[in-house]
Write the structure tokens for this entry.
Amino acid sequence: MRSTAVRAPRTAPDRSGAEITPEAIRAYLDTLSGRGRSRGTIQVYAARLEALYAGLPPDKRISPGTLAAWRETLLAQGYSPGTVNTHLSAANGLLDYLGRRDLQLVGQLEPEPAVRPELTRAEYLRLLQAARSLEKERTYLLVKVFALLGLPVGELPRLTVEQVQAGHVLVRGNGAQWYEAIPRCLEQELRAYIRRRGLLSGPVFVTRNGKAMSRTQVTAEIQSLCRDARVDEAKGNPRCLRKLYQATRTDIERSVRLLAEQAYERVLDAEQLAAGWGEGVNYR
């Protein structure tokens, strides 16, 4: 029989939301241990709840709609539906422990298809060339920002005039934040765009009324290039461009590691010639 001593008392729903504290999170994680959850599961839940806490507003309250907005943010940051589901499962469990089932987000996201379209660098270049020939400077820069910075679409408003002038952009993800350097070629183009648009501060990519572009607007603008660029429309989105960035970085880092290993072997060979014991040891 489940003990009620560790559970927060259930009260009438407070429509102003539920305050989340580190103490409440720790107490909830302790109950998972008492219910026989594995250490690995508890560590996963702890990481998910840490990310939730970091993403809450300053008052650290979950209100109606908070988890739905968080789900959209996680998807925009490139998390798979399965990973997003584990984030929400942890949050729902915490709310159940706090007696606030009214604030839970029910329902699971469907898993993505096993095969997802991948954008090649040749297709990426065709998108840039099409944007340039059509004189769509903003679309050209959007394509380049996602492909060269790996920026999640939800973080695009953080690319501000001030950040471009500083040469980097502050990116958030999975409960952490870091500065991503803006490549010099992109920085110069962004600076020129900012001057031509007369932007003094705030987000670089805005609508006619000065508001930051939404995810839907960004995706629609990039997809508008696909036909002229002879690129599958399913690949014309920030997520595929970000995946291209990640794949390119991974390939480069792998090549650098290989070159380093080869250089190290050459150093050892030279040292062996200079000071080695002999032709080697016979282990027979």
In short: Confidence is low (pLDDT under 50) at residues 1-13.
